[in-house]
Amino acid sequence: MLRTALSHLLGTRRPRPADEDGERGRVRLPLPPALSASLGFDAVGVPAQYGFRLMSHLPRAGCVFADADQWWWIVPSGSDLDLDWPEQASYATGAYVPAGRPRLIHAPESRTPYTPPIPLFLMVCQVTGVAPSWGPSGRPRAVTAP
């Protein structure tokens, strides 16, 4: 642990573990180890210009990562089902985001890393000036009995 912290402070680069490589040019947002992501996790990104406004109006925010261009909110896996996220938003399955330098800027007080996806969706629609839209995606809503 000390070696990792020291190498981070000195700016040396460690090889990335295989499970964090994802697609070429993408990195997986690392959740703090103390948080439980039992539902899996994805990320919703918005342009940085909307970041502070969204953060101040959400009733509860989970883990939020940011770099100069994007702010990323951690949401439960599958939070894109039946939601038409605005064009300005980016949905990253598995929280694999473009390989910038996103850093954790907000950790929740609870033990869950999630921002509730519906309030986030509605706020993203509001700040981007897009009417919320959702509907059946054509996929089954429940597992059929054998």
What would your notes on this structure say?
- The protein is α+β, with helices and mostly antiparallel strands and 146 residues long.
- 19% of the residues lie in helices and 21% in strands.
- It has helices at 2-10, 51-57, 117-128; strands at residues 26-28, 41-47, 64-66, 70-76, 90-92, 96-98, 103-106.
- Strands 5-2-4-3-7 form a five-stranded antiparallel beta sheet, with no helix packed on it.
- A hairpin with a 3-residue loop joins strand 3 and strand 4 (70-76).
- It is globular, with a radius of gyration of 17 Å.
- The protein starts with a helix and ends in an 18-residue tail after the last helix.
User: What is the gyration radius calculated from CA atoms?
Assistant: 17 Å
Low-confidence stretches: 1-22, 140-145
Tell the overall outline: globular
Would you list the SSEs in sequence order as H and E?
Answer: HEEHEEEEEH
Counting H and I runs of at least 4 residues, what is the number of helices? 3
Strands of the widest sheet, in order across it, are: 5-2-4-3-7
Largest sheet: 5 strands, antiparallel
What share of the residues lie within helices? 10-25%
Strand content: 15-25%
Mean pLDDT, all residues: 81
Class from secondary-structure proportions: alpha+beta
Termini separation comes to: 49 Å
Topology, number of strands: 7
